[in-house]
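Researcher: Structure for this, please.
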Amino acid sequence: MIQPFPNMKTKRFLLAAVLLAAASMNADQAPADPLAAATAAFAKGDLATAETLAAPLAQGDTARAEACGLLAEIRVRQKRMKEAVELLEQAGKLDSQKPDYQSRLGAVISMRMGEVNFMQQGLLAGRMLNAFKRSIELDPNHVPGYLGLARYYENAPAIAGGSLEKAAHYAEAVRKRDVFAGTLELGFIAERQDQPDSALNLFDEALLLRPDQAWLYEQTGSVLVKLGRPADARARFEKALALEPKRESARQAMAGLPPTP
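Model: Predicted structure, token format:
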């Protein structure tokens, strides 16, 4: 016979089930951490949502370093470099022990350089250099900081302290910590020193570590052209296209080679 009302044991079971369902619904409806949501939106390329969520967290007395860093990356994507620099400087003040904010600040300042006049470039260069130096002071194994210093000294004019010798020193420091990145950087420096044979050897070393890099086959092809070895260059360009059939720069480079005999 079916009971018209549940007994006490059944009531307790039903009550527990209702409470469990309610808790599950509340958990589903609970708002996620806005910063985590902003980061997820940024990863998906939804800059508008990411900005809406991150901007309030990067303002006022309760500003968060992570939010400033994320909003800076949004500004970089929006090509608003001046604001990105300011946000990274703020992030570095809010979390003065994180090397990533310093190395990223140096990198974004380098992007900003092309937007300002010569006098302003001189001021920015000092800030860039200090940021990279600060990053490796905070973490002696911080690869982006060493890489930033290598590129600073590689590209800066002599009046701003530019030196290929110093660039190679920091590139070696990169290689001690990241063999692939450091070897590549030494290859680029060798090219700047007009040493194509050394550059080719270094790029080939890097290819042994990452043989799936189409752009690197194209890079070595360009060096082989400088060395007067068009047949070998063609083979490299063909390998680049085999890995990335839509790599138009490699196709154009190959088209510029003399006809095969």
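Researcher: Any notable elements?
Model: The radius of gyration is 27 Å. DSSP finds 14 helices and no strands in the chain.
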